[in-house]
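Hi all, a correction to my earlier message: I attached the wrong file for O-methyltransferase-like protein. Here's the right sequence:
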Amino acid sequence: MSTQLPVMVQKPSEFQRLLDILRDLRPQSLLEIGVFQGGSLARFATAAAPRALILGIDLAPPPTVPHGPLQRLQLIAGNARDAFVRAQVVDILDGHQLDFLFIDGDHRAALQDFAEYGPLVHPGGIIAFHDIVPGPPSDVGTVPQDWQALKRGRPHLELVENWGQGGYGIGVIWQT
Ligand SMILES: C[S@@+](CC[C@H](N)C(=O)[O-])C[C@H]1O[C@@H](n2cnc3c(N)ncnc32)[C@H](O)[C@@H]1O
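and the right structure:
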């Protein structure tokens, strides 16, 4: 794997805590909605199993993302809201479920992403959301209020450097 990883749009301290959780989980399959330049997805790949399936969806994904030599990378170009895009994910999974889902795409559609892609994560797997800290609406969309609703009654963890930082912050839910 290349040592030169693409830029990511994350707070390093928060993201490192998520990677620590993932290294324990050692996902065999993961999906990121909102790949951007691939910085977060490439780092997820470093925590995944050697033969993991690494899936990403973006309106305009990069041509590739650094990953392990035996890992299988599938980048889907399209709108996660599109039923055809979700169907591609289901086809690629071929009856298997995800160990990890990262939701960082349309920040006004985190609830829909959770409703549509969350069921693809098996019990004991993890679903994480970026931008749970209130901040400029153009950056965080409705994620902060969506997160307050999502975390209620679910096993969860908040990876937040500072609740006054304006945006960022990662919310983690364990699928039951
Ligand atoms: C904040 S960036 C993701 C940053 C990336 N996860 C990282 O940490 O480096 C959000 C990305 O979501 C993508 N996006 C926005 N709406 C989307 C949608 N409806 N379906 C798929 N991707 C979407 C954008 O193209 C953009 O690349």
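Sorry for the mix-up. The chain has one domain: 12-174.
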